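YM 10:42: Exodeoxyribonuclease III sequence, as discussed on the call
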Amino acid sequence: MPTVSSVNVNGVRAASTKGLLEWLAATEADVVCLQETRALPVDLPSGFLAATAGWHLTLEPAAAKGRNGVAVLSREAPVAVRTGIGAAEFAGTGRYVEVDLPELTVASLYLPKGSAGTPKQEEKDLFLAALATHLAERREKALADGREMVVAGDFNIAPAEADIRNWKGNLAHSGFLPHERAWIATLCASGWTDVVRAVHPGVDGPYTWWSYRGRAFDNDAGWRIDHVLATSGLAARAEHAVVERAPSYDTRWSDHAPVTVRFGPP
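YM 10:58: structure's back
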């Protein structure tokens, strides 16, 4: 089974000038899920295209220029591609793309951020409801076809107190609201496994996002909001899971860090 990485690049054009290309050249991942690419195919920088020349790129941009966007890079060619979560109101938002590889289905997800008590939170909650239905259907279909499945990306939700350094100060903030955490818990109780947490039980973090403000990165005052969810059979094969945190603030090429999971053979 493959090694899967996921990272919110915070704009593929900007990240390509800061270190993304070097990371892609060095990664041993077989599949890389990207979020917040913010680029149409014609906008992809030449350096990124050169760095991914040996990969198969499946890009789902948003209809709104410069917004959202998800992608899957795979060493093997996909045998099928699907976009969206089956909800018309979220069509063209560039938040979900799914590919079938020879033995595995992989989805890249960029979930809305939300803002408590605003229409943005209402939109996020509608997305959560539609996504839960979609993921249940996709999981059942994959298992019926004898396939495992991974959903990797920026969920914009920290599932528990251990997943956010300042959890007491964020109890009323989107990303740590009780109903959002309950949504993740229900998802994991329905047959999905939070692989990083399963590999690293009982510890704080490892965090995947740090604000650019203040000294959040230097103080490791982060959030674990980037997740790799896998069907139970695949999750049981996880041999290694790591957050590839930059060694210093000035070497970051995104406000997120890649999350990488290596799965062993059946």
